[in-house]
Write a structure and sequence with these properties.
Layout: E1 4-10, H1 15-28, E2 32-36, H2 42-48, H3 53-56, E3 59-62, E4 75-79, E5 86-87, E6 96-101, H4 110-115, E7 118-121, H5 130-145, H6 177-181
Pfam family, one: SpoU_methylase
Protein name: SpoU rRNA methylase family protein
Keywords: Membrane, Methyltransferase, Transferase, Transmembrane, Transmembrane helix
């Protein structure tokens, strides 16, 4: 699967939920996990995070939204049960995305919502547990962007093999040759030891 994703939560306060989100993110191959203004007991998180995700996946604990920094080109996607949010089954996941959930008994802050490029929702009749919502979104991303054999029309497993990946032809960079031969010039390149022999 190309691209990357991260997942985190804003103002989350239950250590078991944080641990479950981080463990699931680790299992689905998240590039990093984060919290924004999180208030939970970190030692208790280990009870749910039995994979020690915070020890294997970069973890960022942003004290507030002003300090939250995402990689360049990363799209922030809010997960919130609102009327105007896009239903998850109809959403096209960005290649580079950071998903953020609200707290257990609340919603994303208006400031966080304003910062999100997209707001998505899981089409349920009422709110579900925050760690379960995170798992559903990560699963949907995997199904949408991963390579799997097509689903059959009848119940059961796939009846067709996964199609072979088709590689493009070779790319020959003939016009780049003069640039490979020329020595670099400019400030910092005046050192004679850098000259090609």
């Amino acid at each position: 699967m190309r691209g990357y994703f991260a997942i985190g939560a804003e103002r989350i306060n239950k250590a078991m939920n944080v641990g479950a989100i981080f463990r699931t993110a680790h299992a689905f191959g998240a590039s990093f996990v984060f919290t924004v203004a999180g208030d939970y007991a970190r030692p208790r998180m280990k009870r749910a995070d039995t994979s020690d995700a915070a020890g294997h996946v970069p973890y960022y604990a942003f004290p507030d939204l002003d300090h939250m920094i995402l990689p360049a080109g990363c799209t922030l996607v809010g997960i919130e049960l609102t009327d105007d949010a896009v239903d998850l089954p109809s959403f096209t996941h960005p290649g580079r995305a950071a998903y953020v959930l609200g707290p257990e008994r609340g919603s994303l802050s208006p400031e966080m919502t304003a910062r999100c490029a997209h707001i998505i929702k899981i089409p349920t009749r009422f709110c579900i547990n925050v760690s379960l919502a995170a798992a559903i979104v990560m699963y949907d991303r995997t199904i949408a962007l991963g390579r799997f054999a097509p689903r059959p029309m009848r119940p059961g497993g796939p009846t067709e093999d996964l199609p072979e990946h088709v590689h493009g032809g070779p790319i020959f960079r003939t016009r780049a040759e003069p640039f490979r031969e020329a020595a670099p010039t400019g400030p910092g390149f005046d050192d004679p030891s850098l000259e090609k022999t």
